[in-house]
Structures are given as C-alpha cells and as structure tokens.
C-alpha cells in the first residue's frame, strides 16, 4: 500500500512538472515572438547555474553566445549602476532620511555580492565585545529567510554565538531599537550594512575578498559589484579577508587599487585577515580534526557567494578532493538537491562529504545516504593590522559601555 501511495505521489509530481513545462514553453514562445533575440538571451541568462554564471562574468566561458550575453548584462549593469549612483548621491546630499539607533552601531559590509567573509568578522567583533562584558546584538535584513525562521547566516551565527541575540528586520533602525529595548543591548553589529544607508553608524568596516576583490570589475549583473568600487570610501577600516590565499605583492596591489579608486575616502586602517579552519563539525555538534581531510576521499560543495574560495581552503588543507559542486549563495537545499548530492558523492567514491557551516545549518543532516556529512568551522585570525582595528573599535566599545549612564544613548521610553 505504501509503495502504491509513493507511485501515485511520484506520478502526480511528474504530471505537475509536465504542466509547468508546458506553461513555460507557451510563455517562452510568446516572449520570443514579441521581443525576439534579446528575449532569448535573457531567457538563457535566467537558466544559468551558479558555476556557469561565474564563468560567464569572469570571461572564462568563450564563444559568440556568451559574448552576446555579456553584452546584454553590460547594459543592465549600466542601468543598475546609475540607480545606485543616484541613490548614494541622494544620501550624500541628505535628500534621503537617515535614522539614528538608540545605541552605538558598527556596520560590517562589502562592495561585492556575498562570500567576502563578513560572518567570521561579525563573530570576531561580537566575541571581542562580549569578552568586555558588553551586551551585543546582531541586526540584519535576513536575506533568504522564510516563514519567520532565521536565514542561513543568522542560523550560523546562532551556532557560533549562542549568547548573542540576532534581530532580523529589513528596517535596521527598528531592528536596533528592538535590540536595545527587548534585549537591553549596548551595541549593535549591523551585518551586511554598507549599502543600507538609512541607519547612521559609528563605524563602517569594509570586507574585501582577496580572491575576488573587485567583483570582476563590473557592477551586477555583468559582474559581482553591488555598487561602484568608490563605495568603499564610506568605510573607515578595510579588512582584506582570505589574505593567505594570495601573495604579499597581490595584497599590495589590491590595497593600491582601492586607494586609487577612493582618493578622498575616509579609510584610516588596512587590515589583513585569514579564515583559519579550526575543525570539522557535524550537525550533532561532534568535532573531528582537520587531519581527516588528508586521510579520506572528500567530496566538497558550497552554496556561498564565493564557493571557489571554499574549494581553495580544502585544497590548502591537503584534502583528497574527488569532487566539488557549487550552488548559488543562500541556496535553499531541496529534497531533490539532497538526493542529487548523495548520488554524486557515491559516484565520486567519497568517504566523507564536506560543506560550509552556512550550508550545514540548512541541510541539518548527519550524513548523505551512508556518507558522513561535516562542515569546516572557520575562525577569523588577523595577520596584520590588528592594533589598527582595535584602535578603530575602541571608541565605539567605550560608548557602548557607557550606554546605561550616558543620556546620549538612553533608550527612549
């Protein structure tokens, strides 16, 4: 009886899929007939997976068709970049209102799409503040969250910082006010806050990914820039993440590139950091040493903004990598995805599957089929400039410590 029920459900699923495909074909025919070749290009772009899209924007996908796609994306980038420029100009001229939180705010952000390493920095700052006895809260938009549940980054931070509340609110001023009123927080860390200019902040920290510092030099969707690289000028501290994955000469070139792009910027400190692997962690919370990566056959995957950087981390740890798969940032893993990953890992001959902690909190499984599933736990370590970062943080931490006694930061009734 159970088998019959499964067959019926499977057949219903297939019928539904065929119906959706039929509708899609009809819509495609209509769009093509009305908008011609440009619509075909846009349709092709929408069907790209994460790996193919990256190869499109970085130029490694050669040929006439990808060249035409890049041309269309360049036009869209021009439009998007213009909108962002006008928006930033409106904030610079104070035509758009900026709200003020009742407690000090530290913003952590970037100028490129995802994957720069903001989460380890947020955890590092929060741990630093907690060590001084400060009550800290993290406020974010919660991109990708659904049905009131935390998104992947919030879930990851809850594992790393169980004593730090995380407020998800698209209105960051309201979120910071909630943190002050409901959690008696003295300090807010704004996760992914550089482009959210509707809230004032005491300190802006910019994270730059050493493996892709300028988003392939183009604003989205032609590249990975969220805005012009000149947006970095709003930050007082620039932190180069994954600095160990490139040599010192390339690090200096990146620093000079940003300095040239932001000659009138407010940056007062250049910091270089690494994402140091600490251990392997299962969903049950058990830990194993990184030596497992060198002893077993590893299949790796990542659904983050820069999955190639995760692959480089595995390779630098000496992992016997028999396969690697990439998914889009904030990818919601479906049952079909899990089945596909399981079949793929078996076909690769893997004895263990490794992902990021951000992926593990969404999959919530101890194994894929019979193959153990673990995530690499990452900790931020400062290579150079830690004293400069501390000097930038100190005035804000002192303000936070004075929240209960200073009228300036008294939570309004």
Explain what you see.
By secondary structure, the protein is α/β, with parallel strands linked by helices. The chain contains twelve helices and 13 strands. Strands 1, 2, 3, 4, 5, 6, 7, 8, 9, 10, 11, 12 and 13 form a 13-stranded mixed β-sheet that branches. It is globular and about 55 Å long. The relative contact order is 0.12. Mean pLDDT is 86; it is low at 1-35 and 405-413.
Question: How would the blueprint of this fold be written?
Answer:
Layout: H1 2-46, H2 50-57, H3 64-92, E1 105-109, H4 118-131, E2 136-140, H5 152-160, E3 166-168, H6 172-183, E4 187-191, E5 203-209, E6 237-241, H7 248-261, E7 269-281, E8 287-288, H8 292-295, E9 297-302, H9 307-316, E10 320-326, H10 335-348, E11 352-356, H11 357-363, E12 367-368, E13 371-384, H12 386-401
Parallel strand pairs: 1-4, 1-5, 2-3, 2-4, 5-6, 6-7, 9-10, 9-11, 11-13
Antiparallel strand pairs: 7-8, 7-13, 12-13
Helix pairs in contact: 1-3, 5-11
């Amino acid at each position: 009886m159970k088998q019959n029920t499964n067959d019926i459900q499977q057949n219903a699923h297939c019928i539904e899929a065929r119906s959706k495909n039929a509708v899609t074909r009809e819509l495609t025919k209509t769009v093509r007939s009305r908008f011609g070749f440009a619509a075909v290009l846009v349709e092709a772009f929408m069907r790209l997976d994460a790996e193919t899209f990256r190869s499109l924007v970085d130029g490694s996908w050669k040929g006439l068709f990808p060249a035409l796609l890049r041309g269309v994306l360049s036009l869209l980038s021009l439009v998007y970049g213009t909108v962002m420029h006008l928006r930033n100009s409106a904030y610079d001229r104070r035509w758009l209102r900026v709200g003020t939180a009742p407690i000090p705010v530290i913003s952590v952000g970037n100028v490129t799409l995802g994957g720069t390493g903001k989460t380890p920095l947020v955890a590092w700052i929060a741990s630093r503040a907690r060590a001084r006895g400060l009550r800290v809260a993290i406020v974010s938009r919660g991109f990708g969250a659904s049905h009131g549940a935390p998104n992947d980054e919030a879930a990851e931070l809850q594992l790393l910082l169980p004593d730090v509340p995380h407020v998800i609110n698209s209105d960051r001023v309201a979120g910071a006010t909630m943190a002050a009123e409901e959690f008696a927080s003295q300090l807010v860390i704004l996760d992914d806050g550089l482009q959210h200019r509707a809230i004032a902040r005491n300190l802006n920290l910019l994270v730059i990914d050493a493996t892709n510092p300028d988003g392939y030099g183009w604003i989205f969707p032609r590249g990975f820039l969220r805005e012009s690289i000149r947006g970095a000028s709003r930050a007082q501290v620039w932190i180069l993440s994954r600095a160990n994955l490139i040599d010192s000469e390339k690090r200096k070139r990146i620093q000079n590139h940003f300095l040239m792009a932001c000659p009138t910027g407010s940056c007062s400190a250049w910091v270089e950091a690494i994402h140091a692997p600490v251990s392997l962690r299962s969903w049950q919370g058990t830990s194993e040493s990184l030596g497992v990566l060198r002893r077993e056959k590893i299949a790796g995957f990542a659904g983050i903004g820069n999955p190639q950087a995760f692959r480089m981390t595995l390779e630098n740890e000496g992992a016997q990598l028999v396969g690697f798969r990439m998914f889009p940032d904030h990818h919601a893993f479906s049952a079909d995805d899990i089945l596909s990953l399981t079949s793929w890992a078996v076909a690769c001959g893997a004895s263990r599957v490794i992902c990021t902690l951000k992926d593990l909190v969404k999959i919530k499984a101890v194994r894929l089929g019979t193959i153990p599933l673990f995530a690499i736990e990452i900790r931020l370590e400062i290579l150079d400039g830690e004293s400069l970062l501390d000097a930038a943080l100190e005035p804000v931490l002192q303000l936070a410590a004075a929240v209960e006694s200073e009228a300036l930061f008294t939570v309004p009734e």
